[in-house]
Amino acid sequence: MKKLIILSFGFVALLIASCGGNSSQGELVGVGDAGDWFEPTPYGMVFIPSGSYNMGLNDQDITYAHTSQSKTVSIDPFWMDETEITNSEYKQFVYWVRDSIAKRLLLANDFEEFKREIDPEVLTILEADGYDHEDAQNCFLNWDIEVDYNRADEEFQTALNELFLPSHERFYKQKEIDTRKLIFSYEWVDLKQAANRNNKYYFDEDFTGGEYKGNVVNSKGETVPVKDRSAFIMQDKIDVYPDTLVWMRDYTYSYNEPFARRYFWHSAYNSYPVVGITWKQANAFAIWRTDLMRNYNKANELPVYQDYRLPTEAEWEYAARGGLDLSMYPWGGIYTRNVHGCFIANFKPLRGRYGDDGANRTLEVKRFAPNEYHLYDMAGNVAEWTSNAFDESAYSFTHDLNPDYRYNAKSEDPPALKRKVIRGGSWKDVSYYMQVGARAYEYQDTAKSYIGFRCVRSYMGSDDYAWDVNNF
Questions:
Q1: Residues of CATH 3.90.1580.10 domain(s) within the chain?
Q2: Which of 75, 76, 68, 147 lies closest to 105, judged by CA?
Q3: HSE (CB half, 13 Å, CA atoms) of 455?
Q4: Is the entire prediction scored with pTM above 0.90?
Q5: Would you say 77 and 459 are in contact if contact means Cβ atoms under 8 Å apart?
Q6: Over the stretch 277-330, which tens digit does the pLDDT of each residue have?
Q7: Given the DSSP bridges, would you call strands 456-458 and 419-423 parallel, antiparallel or unpaired?
Q8: Which of 41, 207, 289, 403 would give a disulfide with 308, using CB separation of 3.0 to 4.6 Å?
Q9: What does residue 361 show for φ and ψ, rounded to 5 degrees?
Q10: Regarding beta strands 440-443 and 51-55, do their DSSP bridges make them parallel or antiparallel, or are they unpaired?
């Protein structure tokens, strides 16, 4: 390992020497490939070109909520999921957390097939970097092998016992995973706090060292001094399993037990949008999805792309409009029926005739036609979380280039500070909330049977490509 590191540094030194040598013939030629960048389309996503539009309602504010105004904003290009995240896709997240807990905590110590060969030198380096011995060994787990939870091996099943419900909590004596133990530990970099001018690194006189000045609010809401760059790395834990009881909690005097029991786990609903997800769970999913792609690309020596995240409110509305700047709905018209008299979205039509559009509750994704950007269900089916905090006057103080208003509410904050913007309306909403400019909110720690989400990823190329797509 040390020989490889020495060779790597030698190669870097060679590159530096060549850059400062005679290859440029004394001219300023720059560093790196000057060719055009090409970013492949992420699976399941569509490209949203850059552009400007008038953000806000295109019709009367019938609720007199006064939560939006007309404002011209400009948006950078990005990728967006063509559908809401489905039960099937979210299950991949849940299963990954389940399997990682099983391998890391319960199986790796006793079953050799879940281990990779440990390089002693690398193990020493990891421990020197602050990993304890157990965490360092976890870096060598065999993540490629799947866990067979039905394996007929008493020793294997005994090792997994901690992951299952205790016998006295089982319904109908069925052996089930204890979903309360599916906890995802994750981290992210808070660039906004890192960019604060007060958080600055000061070198000493001879530039041999220095120290940071300033404070940062950590993920627990505590204000702590900045000691080094690790202060900007936020860490959190969250339970990942959806709240399946929202199908009963969101109703009063209504029979919905079948949906509570089957909506998420039954394969019949795999292509339905996931619900019962809080804003924090949606963010955790986006971070996990980023790590999933990043780790694969690194292992296969591929480029590392931008992070997945929730869309900003402005990005969501821009994408929903589909390039039709003055449209009331994503499909461009002012009506909720097509020329044949059929409803063209899943919402609460007429005087509450839920099923007249094809379903009393949610529908599988892609049931209705997409908008001009080829995005499905930007109106109806389920409302969608955005990354932004909700403030009635946000349009007045946010920037007109990629407007973005965020506040990471703490547990002790009042409810008004925990509001997050949701967009698009749902199966339970009247048509007003399906308008591309209509705003609503829900609390970040609350799950509902009518709120889902989709992810976006910033485009890494220049605006030239986006301009060409938009204009030719």
A1: 45-86+299-471
A2: 147
A3: 25
A4: no
A5: yes
A6: 999 999 999 999 999 999 899 888 888 889 999 999 999 999 999 999 888 999
A7: unpaired
A8: 289
A9: -130, -130
A10: unpaired
CA–centroid distance for 1 within its chain: 36
Looking at residue 172, its amino acid is: Y
State both tokens at 59.
């019709």
Contact between residue 234 and residue 193 where contact means Cβ atoms under 8 Å apart: no
Pick among 3.90.1150.10, 3.90.1580.10, 3.30.43.10, 2.20.28.120: CATH of 45-86+299-471:
3.90.1580.10
Range name among 36-40, 62-66, 306-310, 311-315 with the lowest pLDDT average:
62-66
Provide the 10 A C-beta neighbour count for residue 390: 23
User: Which of 58, 31, 74, 11 minimizes the C-alpha distance to 432?
Assistant: 58
At 258, list the tokens.
């079948």
Closest CA to 429 of 403, 449, 455: 449
Of 342, 322, 341, whose CA–CA distance to 332 is shortest? 322
CB 70 within 8 A of CB 58: no
- Tens digit of each residue's pLDDT (9 = 90 or more) over 118-141: 667 766 766 676 666 555 555 567
